[in-house]
């Protein structure tokens, strides 16, 4: 869920600082790249070495301890962050944030960042309800800082009440929901970015599942409905592209205003794609193409014979691989429908088939993959994960994918 997300974790000096270790561990286990900044009082409660070992990143605490001469550490961390999380947050750091004070590594980074900021207060119940602290929190909330409220219970100071920092599991859940919601919002706003972005581009899209004939009335196929490919064709048209849609067997309603070239087998699809390939700018292979076909398709209906029947299958031509071998300036997007080791298989296909991007769907996840109106995908390039899109409509996934492709094409990244 948090793959590729940079989280700057500010740890301040309260007894709950010990929970920062579990928090670092849980965030990194979920794929986040965690960079810790500790205040000097936090170091009274937990060591730098613990947090460095858990995050595999250096821990910062001194503003003047510049380790890389090419950057200014607090500005670098402020810019790097997808989220700044302060946990635990003392009344002191909340006060400094509210008043724009910057006298140590954490407070300067907080002032320099434009990333969203989340604060997990932890303090004595009377401090937490003190009018000064409440006013500071209200000021921060009015500036868009969000708070993960402390829980109630026995506090380290002996009081019972509100002030205990929320448990790391719960904080991680809130962080995950935050990123999920942001990605969903981004996906919806994709339509604003998308207007005209593919104007003048020829986009070839394949959709549906190929049919490999055994005899005139029987065939081998798969569960592809064509919805994903159709959504991509529709989005490409809305973005101004000249769309060539090549569809094998589908159950979905055809996208309006787009001419479809209907094909049946992998071989038919191969021939249709190769006819359009030369002058195309972008090819999106969302179709589920058979890897094997019957060695011979019987010209007449086969008759029942013995107790068993052996069907000899031969490999089909891998269309995507052929395109990958022959591509010049074309931008190539493959899809991978996987049930296990999704990242490994998808990135292996990306390399083998020389794609610019591969869209991996874990088809065991409910609402994703074959036949559904929604999908959830991870998009990889040769460097690794580029984008995770949570469960969204196939239209939203299509729009986000094409915006990403168009941005990369504009930079000449084919
Ligand atoms: O059509 P829907 O019901 O909406 O479902 C969408 C989908 C699950 C079919 C789609 O999102 C998807 O994942 N399509 C790829 C399906 C797949 O199983 O791909 P693959 O792992 O077999 O192949 C990898 C890539 O190589 C694909 O881009 C495929 O089009 C291509 N390929 C595969 C074999 C072959 N002979 N030629 C190819 O071009």
- In order across it, which strands form the biggest sheet? 12-11-8-13-16-17-18-19
Number of helices, where a helix is a run of at least 4 consecutive DSSP H or I residues: 13
Ions, cofactors and other ligands present here are:
ligand PMT
Strand content: 15-25%
Uncertain regions: pLDDT < 50 for 5+ in a row?
Answer: none
CATH architecture level-2 label of the largest domain: 3-Layer(aba) Sandwich
Question: Which CATH class of the largest domain?
Answer: Alpha Beta
> How many extended strands?
19
* Count of folded domains: 2
Q: Radius of gyration in whole Å, from Cα?
A: 27 Å
Describe the structure.
- The chain has 414 residues and is α/β, with parallel strands linked by helices.
- It has two domains: 6-186, Rossmann fold; 194-410, CoaB-like (Rossmann fold, 3-Layer(aba) Sandwich), CATH 3.40.50.10300.
- The chain has helices at 19-29, 48-55, 73-80, 91-99, 105-112, 125-128, 131-142, 168-194, 227-238, 266-277, 319-326, 342-352, 394-410; strands at 6-11, 33-38, 83-89, 117-121, 146-147, 151-154, 160-164, 202-207, 212-215, 218-220, 242-247, 260-262, 282-285, 292-294, 313-315, 331-338, 357-362, 374-381, 384-393.
- It is elongated, with a radius of gyration of 27 Å.
- The two termini are 28 Å apart.
- The model has no long low-confidence stretch (mean pLDDT 94).
- It binds ligand PMT.
- Ligand PMT binds next to α9, α11 and β16.
